Amino acid sequence: MIQTDILVIGGGPSGLSAAIAAGKSGAQVLMVDRSPQFGGQLMKQTHMFFGSENQYASTRGFEIGHKLIKEVKSYKNIKILPSTTALGIYEGGVITLEQKIGAEEFYLKVYAKSLIIATGALEKSLPFANNDLPGIYGAGAVQTFMNEYLVKPGKRVLMVGAGNIGLIISYQLLQAGVEVAGIIDASPEIGGYLVHASKVRRSGVPILTGYTILRADGTDHIEKATIAKVDQHWKPISGTEIEFDVDVLCISVGLTPSSAFFWQIGCEMLYVKELGGYVPRRNEYLQTTVKNIYVAGDSAGIEEASSAMVEGSMAGLAASQALGFKHTSYENKMQGLLQEIQDLRGGEKSTHIREGYKKASF
Amino acid sequence: MLKTTGVPGERDLNGVFPSPERLKRGPVAIVECFETIPCNPCYTACPSGGINAFKSITDLPTIDFDKCNGCTLCISSCPGLAIMIIDYQHQKDYIKMTIPYEFFPLPKEGEWVKGLNRCGEEIEKVQVLSIIKENQHDKTFLVSIAVPKNQFKEIRNIKVGDSYDK
Predict the structure, then answer these.
(1) pTM here?
(2) B55 touches chain A (CB under 8 A)
(3) What is the DSSP string of chain B?
(4) Residues of chain A found within 8 Å of residue B82, distances taken between Cβ atoms
(5) CATH 3.50.50.60, domain A125-251, yes or no
(6) I want to staple A13 with a disulfide (CB 3.0 to 4.6 A). Which of A45, A308, B113, B120 is the partner?
(7) A2-122+255-360 adopts what CATH topology?
């Protein structure tokens, strides 16, 4: 059995930041990710990030990922296992892992004194007629195709969802030379940052708010998508249908926290609409209701990468300090991070996040 | 309008363009940032104090039009690509507009390209004056175009591709 002080599950922005923060204290840290490459969703982000210098503002997402990975690798006391999936967490702090090396799979057992769960989120989907036709993708898949494997998903795309992900991927599709026929969203207003909306709009992509997807049609793949206006009860209004000839429909209608491990451990869970679904209740320093089990990033509530990195740092700092590893000026560092995250969530756009965190905190 | 279509309206834009007197004094930054999102790299990128200090990271950027000299450094620091530089006195009938551009192929100097408005509609053919692709701008290229003075508030983007002879 592998023994470690802290196991970090998930090597995305929050997991990497957690490992670095904990690693600074000298604690033995093991970080696993099911992907062959660490960095999580950062590695698909070709746009520049918002935030301040502390969260690498103006740097492109994948470059932030590379910086964090490089920093993680500079610590001798941080071990990373790529292509390794955490399978289950058992009484007494034993975690089982499945590690893939080439075509072979190995089962490992780990005993960790403390656990930081940074498993991110899952994409939501939509029920509509023929939503299983080839050519209908989740936004993550489209981004993986384009930005990881350099494969265009198709020729002409209709984007469903005008949140940040829908807007950003539309822009990236344009950059890849794919036509974007339009972006629709059932909400009366654009959900993502307006600067993203403005830049795709001035590139000629119409944004239609108050519209939903009705159906997809095609023989062996999608050839046509039909949308319609919705009334105030979000019901389609007959006679308002518009058809789009597209070979790709990209569904970007939000994320829900990946919460399976918290349920298995027996953390107290709460459904918080503002945070995207069930999340573990946690204190200010991201410890759940179970001692030495921490949460960070999207699995704590759907937000974005800048705050995920700050949360990761907080969880890593708190978890290592609680195990008796000493940080120089711990209090100052923690207060600084608390202030940073409060600032990031300070705007009008983050009202729901602030409300969600109030509900989930104890 | 902005919140439903992504197109800023006249009132939004009037709040971010400087006075005609200031425009005539030389190049200046126009920041089309209308939402209190957590972001401040324009302020940290500015070497001349042209962007007023942020009290909070979610403040909207405001320009000190006396200090801003239109140096272009803020353009590629803005993750929202919301900043352009306008040199109103560039020529008698044309202003020089410098915008961020992240598409390939890049236009060539002297090439005529489509001038697009904030809805992405082609409203004029415009000529490319210069392209800056320094490392410090990462991969956000700066393209300067000559825009007729009567359209300087309408044009905000270009489309390269179909070439023009003019």
Answers:
(1) 0.94
(2) no
(3) -HHHHS---HHHHHTTS--HHHHHTS-EEEE---S--SB-HHHHH-SSS-BPPPSSTTSPP-B-TTT----STTGGG-TT--EEEEETTSSSSEEEEEEEE--SSPPPTT-EEEEEETTS-EEEEEEEEEEE--GGGTT-EEEEEEEEGGGTTTEEEEE-SS----
(4) 195, 198-199
(5) yes
(6) A308
(7) FAD/NAD(P)-binding domain (3.50.50)
